[in-house]
């Protein structure tokens, strides 16, 4: 069975249940999941909404990140999805999950997955603030 069960960049709403179900496995004793949502503030400023834009290589890079984490940890399954397009406060921007035989490995691998995704996957955030100003942030 494939270790990387889901690795996509999408312009449709994300589902925590879909990502969780993708990594569920009878051999896994632990599943760690991280969901990142659009918050209503950043560095003391009100955020109205934001948009994510991805480089055409983003999906391939996301898969590479999943492969890297799978190679570094005792992983049963990995799933990761990142949203692009316009998002409102509260919308899910990213959901990642890792299942492993034991909980400690699942937590560690999930943390490595989201950290590496944010560092390596070419997705850029455009935030629009309450005062009408905006900024681009080079992060996933």
Write the layout of secondary structure elements.
Blueprint: E1 4-10, H1 16-23, E2 30-37, E3 41-42, E4 45-54, H2 58-72, E5 77-83, E6 85-88, E7 92-100, H3 103-120, E8 123-129, E9 134-137
Parallel strand pairs: 1-5
Antiparallel strand pairs: 2-7, 3-4, 4-6, 4-8, 5-7, 8-9
Helix pairs in contact: 2-3
Explain what this protein looks like in three dimensions:
The chain is 29% helix and 41% strand. Helix 2 runs antiparallel to helix 3. The chain has a single domain, classed as Aldehyde Oxidoreductase, domain 3 (Alpha-Beta Complex). It starts with a strand and ends with a strand. With 140 residues, it is an alpha+beta fold. The strands form 2 sheets. Strands 3, 4, 6, 8 and 9 form a 5-stranded antiparallel β-sheet that branches. A 4-stranded mixed β-sheet has the order 1-5-7-2, with helices on both faces. The protein is elongated, with a radius of gyration of 15 Å. The chain has 3 helices and 9 strands.
